[in-house]
């Protein structure tokens, strides 16, 4: 790589010092504060750090942390990869990730949906992966459409290769702004935000994964990569068994996107899969923690689409603990809990905890799902007999459980 200008070198070094100090004083992993310090000293730092690297940006409502991890794990076979592994997915986090792996020829960055246009414009990334767009906490369909429109404009202004899920109409619409798209059929489980055509507002007709607008020419693009059950079919028609360690349909969808992405870097599926299969958990998700003879598997679900994915992974034969908070990162309004269909939980022991357990309890009561309300997570665990237990928690509830029961990884 070419040398960074002196000012950028200094900004980057001071940012790393700030991150080290932040870690040393117990204020988290320091990646955000370090990046902020760097950007304060050199506002152009992100662009300079991204230059001369082969960079992929990953954005979606759900699955971006996992997909970033899968792509990174595969690309490591080609060389060192800079990445924001801890989900610090705004520009300060990106500066920190790139700054701490300055010689890495590759970079894979998870990007917050709202920051994607800005980060793409700054970094001129060669590849952008887009998986899904749906309401997140208090967003509503209209706001999601506005976001898709911003993506579309940003992609139209660049020559970036876009790897996009053609089964999600909003993502497909955003990606058609770009002149270079590789379409992946990765499925779409949550459809409540895409009944209307993003182009004209008309109704979308759906049949299986296929969709088309009844009133204009906008329809599902033809994919070159297809997720088919446990397999991914590549553009040559060759079938690859995924055999991931990560569970569930949502992770197979993430893996299909990852395979198409690393192929753009010249990595064949046969090699890429070796990297994908090494990933066992992502920032604590899917981790199992042990307590008093109970094995608790932790599933993170931050929004309605995420809950559907977690239900898909949860074992119907096991008891389940649901924990919901409503702190800043969760969104204070819990009305999104009403968007989820909980009836799949009928027939298994359901325990409800978290700061907003009563909001969830009311929702379960209306859905006819029997449950037990618990004052704390520890109490919920103690109520259940020893054995395996699934846990679904939203963001801060998940972090609390990890802090109390698990270990950081
Ligand atoms: Zn239309």
Automatic annotation (TrEMBL):
Transmembrane feature ranges: none
Enzyme class name: ligase
Pfam families referenced in this protein's UniProt entry, alphabetically: Mur_ligase_M, MurT_C
InterPro entries referenced in this protein's UniProt entry, alphabetically: Lipid_II_synth_MurT, Mur-like_cat_sf, Mur_ligase_cen, MurT_C
Gene Ontology terms, MF aspect: ligase activity
Span of domain Lipid II isoglutaminyl synthase (glutamine-hydrolyzing) subunit MurT C-terminal: 300-397
Domain Mur ligase central span(s) in chain numbering: 61-261
Annotated active site: 333
Pathway: Cell wall biogenesis; peptidoglycan biosynthesis
Alphabetical list of SUPFAM superfamilies matching this protein: MurD-like peptide ligases, catalytic domain
Record-listed Zn(2+) binding positions: 197, 200, 213, 216
EC number, as in UniProt: 6.3.5.13
Function: The lipid II isoglutaminyl synthase complex catalyzes the formation of alpha-D-isoglutamine in the cell wall lipid II stem peptide. The MurT subunit catalyzes the ATP-dependent amidation of D-glutamate residue of lipid II, converting it to an isoglutamine residue.
Family, as annotated: Belongs to the MurCDEF family. MurT subfamily.
The protein, known as: Lipid II isoglutaminyl synthase (glutamine-hydrolyzing) subunit MurT
Organism: Microtetraspora malaysiensis
Gene that specifies this protein: murT
